[in-house]
Design a protein that fits this description.
- It contains twelve helices and 17 strands.
- It is α+β, with helices and mostly antiparallel strands.
- The strands form three sheets. Strands 1, 2, 3, 4, 5, 6, 15, 16 and 17 form a nine-stranded mixed β-sheet that branches. Strands 7, 9, 10, 12, 13 and 14 form a six-stranded antiparallel β-sheet that branches. The chain has a two-stranded antiparallel ribbon with strand order 8-11.
- A hairpin with a 5-residue loop joins strand 1 and strand 2.
- Helix 3 crosses helix 12.
- The chain is globular, with a radius of gyration of 22 Å.
- The N and C termini lie close together (about 10 Å).
- Bound molecules: (2S)-amino(hydroxy)ethanoic acid (HGY) and manganese (II) ion (2 copies).
- One manganese (II) ion binds next to loops.
Length: about 400
């Protein structure tokens, strides 16, 4: 068993939490390319160097801690949602760092570490690993914009002299990512570890409806072309139509809404909103896309609204590698006998992109109350350490 140091691991987790600490619970605000994100990456680069790894930023800020020669890659992301939890992504990066240190102390196997950039999709969907894996051309990524209209290209310029050459995926023999479950199932079952079977696919589309801005008091209801009312009608119709397609694992969300001019006495003339859906089957994702596009067109026509679709962003479902998954399962049996399960991931992860180049697998630890993407996100310390030991056990097995 690799000699991981749980105190050093927990102490590094606490230090990382300090970068962008929101001052609410243990929450963090560390969006991609923010000052807090870059300061955290500089600190991580230092910890990687102290661990005997060679720190290397690529052109979009993905930070690798490279071991000599062929190595297994272990990590996740250290950017956060606008209101993020302290463990989402950070846990996998710090666990990777600790396993790399322990593996060196044990004389092997070689372990490299990574913190991908913009997994949380300030600009797209798992943008940093999508560029690194070749799923998203850099020139196309540079044109992506965040909710405030800043482009990815302009934001990543903040990397300055950190940005370096591409890190070749061929140097890695596989990828392991430890992550919080971000859902209710492990806690509800009183279990400590989830060995992920597959990661859902996602589609994310920005939709704009254009109506007629007007006075909220003098414009009769039958003469209005109200963009928000159009969005509401769209959402209600989509809910009805998805019901016939969805399984209990199918989800869809309108999470971002920009109303113009967003004033209580003005009939809104324009609304731009995110329409995101996820499922484990490509065919269902595509059928849902048809419902989205057809319903938007019908509502726009019926209400005399203009309709614009933004670029569709998406990733297909990805199955985890059997050999890596078996190593995690064997280690889970050792560390948490009877308290682990195989389970799908409803959240998206960098592993989906990394799988384009190498075998990947993931393990989960419970989220208290099933909460994530919220300042309240947390996991019991005993579960964090159990997860670390399972990750180390799996790396030890793979190195045999
Ligand atoms: O949205 C996701 O699934 C990921 O946490 N960014
Ligand atoms: Mn994450
Ligand atoms: Mn997340």
């Amino acid at each position: 068993m690799l000699p991981v140091d749980a105190d050093r691991f927990l102490s590094d987790l606490e230090t990382l939490r300090g970068f962008g600490a929101a001052g609410v619970g243990k929450g963090v605000q560390r969006p991609a390319y923010s000052e807090a994100d870059l300061a955290a990456r500089d600190w991580l680069a230092g910890r990687m160097a102290e661990a005997g790894l060679t720190p290397a930023f690529d052109a979009v800020g993905n930070l690798f801690g490279l071991a000599e020669g062929p190595s297994i890659l272990v990590g996740s992301h250290s950017d956060s949602q606008p209101e993020g939890g302290w463990l989402d992504g950070a846990l996998g990066v710090i666990a990777g760092l600790e396993v790399a240190r322990a593996a060196q102390q044990a004389g092997g196997p070689a372990v490299s570490v990574v913190s991908f950039e913009d997994e949380e999709g300030r600009f797209g969907v798992t943008t940093g690993s999508a560029v690194w894996s070749g799923a998203l051309p850099l020139a196309e990524a540079d044109g992506l914009t965040d909710a405030g209209g800043m482009t990815f290209g302009a934001a990543r310029a903040a990397l300055g002299g950190r940005a370096g050459p591409e890190v070749d995926p061929a140097r890695f023999t596989g990828f392991l990512e430890m992550h919080i479950e971000q859902g209710p199932w492990l806690e509800a079952a009183g279990e400590q570890v989830g060995v992920v079977s597959g990661i859902v696919g996602i589609r994310d589309l920005r939709i704009t409806l254009e109506g007629q801005q007007n006075h909220a008091g003098t414009t009769p209801m039958h003469l209005r072309r109200d963009a928000v009312q159009g969005m509401v009608a769209f959402a209600s119709a989509v809910n009805d139509r998805f019901a016939g397609l969805a399984t209990e694992a199918t989800v869809w969300t309108i999470g971002h809404v920009a109303v113009h001019p967003n004033a209580s006495s003005i009939v809104p003339g324009r609304v731009t909103f995110s329409m995101q859906w996820r499922d484990g089957e490509v065919a269902r994702l595509e059928a849902m896309e048809k419902v989205v596009r057809d319903t938007a067109a019908e509502v726009a026509a019926a209400r005399g609204l203009g309709l614009r679709f933004g670029e569709m962003r998406g990733i297909d479902p990805v199955a985890m590698d059997a050999r890596l998954r078996d190593a995690l399962a064997g280690a889970a049996d050792d560390i948490a006998p009877g308290r682990w399960r195989h389970m799908p991931s409803g959240a998206l992860h960098d592993a989906s992109n990394v799988a384009r180049h190498m075998p990947v697998a993931m393990l989960f630890v419970p989220s208290i109350g099933g909460i994530s993407h919220d300042f309240a996100e947390d996991t019991a310390e005993a579960d964090l350490v159990a997860g670390l030991r399972v990750l180390a056990g799996a790396v030890g097995r793979l190195g045999q």
